[in-house]
Amino acid sequence: MRRLADRVVLVTGGARGIGRAVVETAVREQAAVAFLDLDEEAGAALRDELTGRGARVAFRRVDVTDGQSVADAVNDVADALGPVDILVNNAGRNVYADPVAMTEAEWDQVFDVDLKAAFLCAKHTLPSMIARGSGAIVNIASLHAKLTCAGMYPYAAAKSGLVGLTRSMALEVAPHGVRVNAVSPGYIRTALVDEYFDQNPDRDAERKALDVHPLGRIGTPEEVAEVVCFLASDAASFVTGAEWAVDGGLGARFA
């Protein structure tokens, strides 16, 4: 398939998990792909692996919570591959805080990564999209934007904010031919989900999670990536301001 042929895709948090799957799927769809991550070793290894297969790929170690670093990275991507056509805001972090014990600095760290970074990356990629009258942004939110659980404060607030940002931004840029959507994964087999199960005091947490999934299993990063790349492509040309759940039906269940 060539859904993203001749497009330049920028993925944040692209070295592992869902981000890596998006990078690999976009490459399969014939895009030129740049990705950003703090994990320089994993990022360089993925870049080398993909370029070895003949893909047009660039990697930068970037702190996406720093506006100047993001601006510089977007300029570097434009020089290396061309102006960004598609932005996937995937970078994020889990948090397990207490509403009283959590410090202001810890709060800011969560919202800087899970929400502010999406604004910064959009801020610096949108000008060229608007100038060309086309483009797409896909924000990776979470099932926690609508349904959450104790012990993950304030992750739901940050992801709810990202869905709200998606809607607001979609309305602002729609007149310029740019689409903005969100994808909300549920339980996906990533390092973050494994971390959640490992740190959960309930040693039966994973089995209980599986028991309430209508499809009876946890999803894969590749399944999320397929939806992301669909929304980024012209196949979804009349979709904007939407939040797509990729959760195995968990969000539809009354439990």
Short structural summary:
This is SDR family NAD(P)-dependent oxidoreductase. The chain is an alpha/beta fold.
Topology:
Blueprint: E1 8-12, H1 17-28, E2 32-37, H2 40-52, E3 57-61, H3 67-80, E4 86-89, H4 104-132, E5 135-140, H5 155-173, E6 178-185, H6 191-199, H7 205-211, H8 221-232, E7 243-246
Protein traits:
about 260 residues, alpha/beta, Rossmann fold, 7-stranded parallel β-sheet, about 45% helix, globular
**Beta-strand proportion:** 5-15%
Number of strands: 7
The gyration radius over C-alpha positions equals 18 Å
* CATH architecture call: 3-Layer(aba) Sandwich
- Structure annotation, total helices: 8
CATH topology: Rossmann fold
Helix-strand string: EHEHEHEHEHEHHHE
Computed structural class:
alpha/beta
Provide the spatial order of strands within the biggest beta sheet. 3-2-1-4-5-6-7
List the domain count as a whole number. 1
End-to-end separation = 39 Å
Shape: globular
**Unreliable parts:** none
CATH class descriptor: Alpha Beta
What number is the mean pLDDT? 95
Largest sheet: 7 strands, parallel
The oligomerization state is single chain
Spell out the CATH superfamily.
NAD(P)-binding Rossmann-like Domain
In percent, how helical is the residue content?
40-55%
Description of the structure:
The protein has 255 residues and is an alpha/beta fold. It has one domain (8-245): NAD(P)-binding Rossmann-like Domain (Rossmann fold), CATH 3.40.50.720. The protein has helices at 17-28, 40-52, 67-80, 104-132, 155-173, 191-199, 205-211, 221-232, and strands spanning 8-12, 32-37, 57-61, 86-89, 135-140, 178-185, 243-246. A seven-stranded parallel beta sheet has the order 3-2-1-4-5-6-7, sandwiched between helices. Helix 3 (67-80) packs parallel to helix 4 and helix 4 (104-132) packs parallel to helix 5 (155-173). The termini are far apart. The mean pLDDT is 95. It is an enzyme of class 1 (oxidoreductase). InterPro entries: NAD(P)-bd_dom_sf (IPR036291), Sc_DH/Rdtase_CS (IPR020904), SDR_fam (IPR002347). This is SDR family NAD(P)-dependent oxidoreductase. GO terms for molecular function: oxidoreductase activity.
